[in-house]
């Protein structure tokens, strides 16, 4: 689908001077003034309708550009920028007296081999299936993003740490029960999870770092097993 033109139209200046052909003819005095006022009101209404239409188009195009800049094209999830905006919003809410949550970092295991052995088309399909699995097994208020490559993040928002950890474990179990059929092969979904609770006193970069460390510890343990 060809994306719409993203250039924002300029608002036309409203000029209430009537074209010569629309000036009242054959009328004088009060009748001429009333007729002229009526024509001016009609012209103003038309110009205002045009202005409202252009404003609506501008808003639609701005919304489209904002969505484009925060969405991962392959999976339809938030991208890294969209995730950062969402995470900062959640942390700000926690500081205003709201509840914290749990950040889950998800890094796929053995994804390079899928690309190398089964093709990049298989890899793309695999990423989309992981994205659907994560998104389909969290609440509407939770946030799922693809940060890039084979790395995903899930924000389990407004939840106590113990409950968030339990949900993350359930999410991991669900994902590891899934497999993608590709031609004559069944490719199981595999990933390493790292979970870190966050609250009002936490900083975004620190939470991300701690979750990353835990995720790589899980990945290392899995390889050593």
Automatic annotation (TrEMBL):
A Pfam entry, by short name: GGDEF
PROSITE patterns, per the entry: GGDEF
Positions of the GGDEF domain: 99-225
EC assignment: 2.7.7.65
EC top class named in words: transferase
Listed CDD domains: GGDEF
Catalytic activity: 2 GTP = 3',3'-c-di-GMP + 2 diphosphate
UniProt GO molecular function: diguanylate cyclase activity
Superkingdom of origin organism: Bacteria
Protein name: diguanylate cyclase
